[in-house]
Amino acid sequence: MAVTSQQRQTGLRQQPLVLLVVVLLFCSAMVARLVWMQLLEGARFRELADENRIRLVPRSPIRGRLLDRKGRVLATSKLSYTLYVEPRLVSDSAWPGLRDRLAALLNLKPDVLDQRRDRGVDRDGYRTTLALNLKPEQVLRFREQASTLQGAQVDVEILRHYPHGTLASHALGYTQPITEQEYEALAEKGYKIRDRIGRTGVEAAYETHLRGKWGGQMLEVNAMGEVQRNLGDRPSVAGKDLTLTLDLDLQRAAELSLADKPGGAVVALDPEDGSILALASKPGFDPNFFSKLITTQKEYDALFSNPKKPLLSRAMNPYDPGSTWKPVTAMAGMESGKFPPDTKLHTTACITYGGHCFPDHNGVGFGTIGYADALRFSSNTFFYQVGVGVGSLALKQAADQLGFQQKTGIEIGWEESVGLVGDERWAAKGRGWAAPGSVPWIPEDMASASIGQSVVQITPLQLARAYAVFANGGWLVTPHLAKGQTNWLDAEHRRKVAIKPSTLKTIREGLRKVVSAGTGFGLNGPGIPPAAGKTGTAEDSTGGADHAWFGTYAPYPEGEIVVVAFAQNTPGGGSVHALPMAKTVLAAWEKTRQR
Prior knowledge:
The protein is α+β, with helices and mostly antiparallel strands and 595 residues long. The strands form eight sheets. Strands 2, 3, 4, 5 and 10 form a five-stranded mixed sheet that branches. A five-stranded antiparallel sheet has the order 12-11-23-22-21, sandwiched between helices. A three-stranded antiparallel sheet has the order 1-8-9. Strand 11 and strand 12 form a beta hairpin. The protein starts with a helix and ends with a helix.
């Protein structure tokens, strides 16, 4: 018993030591934890604390406006109010009550609110869109009750707005939300995940000029998310307005001229410096579609899967040009020296090349004629002889001089095709689809190329640029859509074409005869200045109905405007369908000159 008592006393004497060790270990752990939190991880935990205490409310910039050459608005921005909920502030049990209050207050459907909440958070990662485009009275009612609607908020969105709808849609383009991949690349340039970016057209080409800079508020909030005070405010910086070369009146006239056509394009430009006065394409689209915050898959498919391809700019897509190409063949003939300006050739009902007899369009020919009358009557057999006589390389050289089979230099050039001017070297390489040497260049190819068929495909914009050479006395200009962004008369954007004065004079006289007493006579009339031009009817090499073309410049001889009208798959001839389109635009232009 004595031993047992002594052991108990020894154990009792050791208990304080054990407790002390435990306390020291516990305190050491606490100190170590505090050291780790305060010294080693202090900066990170202060940042996390600030994120819980401080809320950054971004303010999106107002995008710069797009204006026509006279300052009229083509694209602007508008405010749209959106209802959101922050899921982290609204539990599943609290949601039904908030939902019913919002539905009653703002006249919304509870089941729709449920559906939208179930989609999860938006791309910004912290809130969910419940309702779009709230009316002013809805916003006011929400503001009055906002303090009792915990977790809900109404925020303003700045959306792109195109007041004229489809007008000039391919030239203006549209904006779209930035993708995650784009955000990763552009975040360092100030873009936000909620940002919108110019996707096509001028909106994309001048994105940096138009977009502006984000601003925001730094707010201190409590644990309930209620704002305690404003810690700082940095206003957003609006983007810069951009004045375009487009003329709203001419653009309207161009699109009106396309109204009864299944498809087509109209290009009007200033031949002196390449300013585009109108750029129309049909079918078109409403760029306001892309400003919607939410689109259904059905709406999206109706636009992007439409077989009519409304997003395709016909003005920059290549087609068989038909007889509007004949001035190029004339240039090749004269510049080669083989068919000088005073050449006279006998025209007949048809001329045989290879195994095919290529006809003249009137079935009998036009007798012995020169260049001017060949253009006036649009004689096929005259130009067959010239084209076959000079060969494909000479024709290709003339085409290159006039800017074909190359991009025009327009700011929205990524949407532009270079087209095709086939020659013997191209054929030897396989024509783009066959084995090299398997489909050689034959006389039939050359005959077709001479009148703009089969192996020649150009865009309406390219043709307008080429006709500007005839209008301005021999300068190849760069078409452009924005005013004042660079010197469009410098050597980089305007170069002299190596064309003999006699060649230029002969082509000009022929184009004038087309309008004064030839296939383009219908262009004459009250309110139309004296003009030169060329009609064209082209077989569609893809198998569709014929295309109708007309290219013109006015006043003659020193043109101030070039107009190219193209009616896609509209059989009947250029003088019947395309010429009246160009006439509508010229009449509108003449009115603007009288003001």
